[in-house]
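Most newcomers find our protein records easier to grasp once they have seen one. To make this concrete, we reproduce a full record directly below:

…
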Amino acid sequence: MKIFFYELLYVSAVSLGAATLLFPLLGAGELFWLVVTVIVLLSGILTGFKNAGWTVRMLLTAGAVTVVSAILLLNRNEAIHEVFVGHAALLWLPVIAVFTFLAGEGVARIRLFRILVAAGSGLSLIPCAALSIRVEKLFVVAVLSLLLLTAAEEIQRTWKKSGSTDGVAHLVTLAPFLLVTMLLVAIAPVSEKPYDWAFVKKIAAQAEKGMRELHIRLSIGNDRDPSESMMGFSGRGQIFGRLHDSEEEIMVLSGLTPGIRYEKLTGKTFDTFDGQEWTDTDSSGLRDVTLDTISLLASAEEFTDHREDLIHRATMQIRYRKINTAYVFHPLKTIAAGSWAAAARLQEGGGDLLWPGVKSFRTEYTVPYFRINRDHDLFLEYLRGSKLPSYSSFAPNAMMVAGQDAADYSYEDLLRHREHVYEVYARPVELSGELRADLDALCAGVSAPCDRMVLLEGMLRGLSYTDQPGKLPERVKGETEFLDYFLKESREGYCSHFATALVLLARAEGLPARYVQGYLVPVGGETEVVVRAAMAHAWAEVYYDGAGWIPYEPTPIYEVMSRWETVEEREKLTEAAVVSPVGPPEHETVEAPDPEPEEEETHHIRIPWYAVAIPVAAGLLFAVFLLTILKLIRRIRFGRLTERERFAALCRRNLMLLRLLNLGIGETETLREYGSRIAAAAGAENVAFLRFLEDHLYDGSYDPREGESVATETGQRLAERLQKEHPLRSLRARMQTGM
């Protein structure tokens, strides 16, 4: 019996854990407790079947026949058949029970397997807790049960024992205490919110930052082949022969305006091109970024009473990740003034916005800026008449942007800024005769500079994009040669080629233009996005009096749109949306008829009498048949025994009957002492067989036939007495002995 309980402990723990894990695969919905209970019960029955005698095995088999017969008969009922079909996955329960029984037997019998399963189950709870993966409480109970059972058994191996050294018996003795512990765990309340592991996350975050910073610092200064480059911001103006993608995470943008498809982040501007590479020669100390933004605000205010038709104020948060840079990445028309700029000690110069030193992934800042309605017809109309704002408009806008630092942004600074832009960024570019003729033909009849820029931008977008255009030929020594080679010969390239071409063509038209390097970030309407190295980009910006620097996108594969409806357009849409309701005349009242209440269908499952009677009868008949066969087998085997073997079997039966009558032999008693002790309680006639048994065991000097006769008569009397005093024990004796 102790072996049965020992194995049952492990089988129950394994089946409970497996049932909770496999339950979602069965699609049983609200039947969780039923499924778990059935699996644990079936695995326990299989354990009992393994350890029981043949009589109990026959009865269990008969019970299985009863259940299967009932299922087959009940399945003929249409309503019950629908229930079975709806829960067809439950047919896997016996299979799962067999699997868990075999696994539990392996855990109970094989020490190494038990240790591995217990350790693996316990370790599986660690990532679940760390990653907030929800698990059923019963699974935790099963794992803890297995761990405690294994720990108790392993600890016993180290103990020095006296008396009983049976580890199996000791573990069975401990079982009630373990079960009480598991019951307390099972009924203990569980918080709906998982433990946040804040201190572990903080340590892990600090370790991650440290490793990333070390990686960044170690990667600084890596030399690259100038003929090819990984995608990413470099701060250098080379035009490479081919590019390679890189998915490194550079920055994170958050707090973005909903609905925006793209964001451009300026990093570095360039003014001089030698045919092969851009360089930055602008060393002016003017605060170009903020002056440019104030000029746009004042100019737009003078153009329209609804400045929001042209510009919208916005902010975004930028957080550096894997990057080391001195450049402040920012949108065009940034407000690089006020408290945030002062706190960060930002520096402006040559059109760039710079940190006082090199910043890395720990840098985080919020940028206020103005979005421009660049692709709206109204903005194009504004550019056609754009001019420097008056002092009366500039001063209040400088106060609004810079606050108490407005004195640092005077109207004279704006005039000097404009003069500097024309001096540095409007250097004339000479075109070949053929290219000049082509441009004149393209722009014939178009006088406004902004309209000519739209045509030039469209012309370049008609060329081909490739990230492997090859090196620029050595014969390309200047701007003219580059334009002829790119526009007439190659006609393909990537963003650097297209941006360079548009800047040079704009200057050839007499407009100030600059080459800008930064990131073009697909936002897709999200409010937070990751900026990757492969999003590095170059584009052209053209300067207009008043409006300042305006971006253009000549690279064919990029569709960068920035457009929203004006106040007038929104008002028209609102008026169009107001539609008079259509209904019956005012003097008529139309009432909807009251809906008739629907009768709820109730499905009653009626189980026919035969669906219960037949399986029960089949089970009973099968049990009687098996017991009859077993009894017949025992009689045949008994008849084949020798006289002495039959006498010994009868004596064993009589000793069992005495034990069931609470007259069992003591562990240290001899047969003679035993007979003397129970003679009065059992009757002298019922202990006479002990004299023959003593002779049988020690000297063999007895008549086997007489001993068999005495033992048989004693057994009949003891069986009758047991039937009267303990009916249930009598039934058990009959099943075990076949009497």
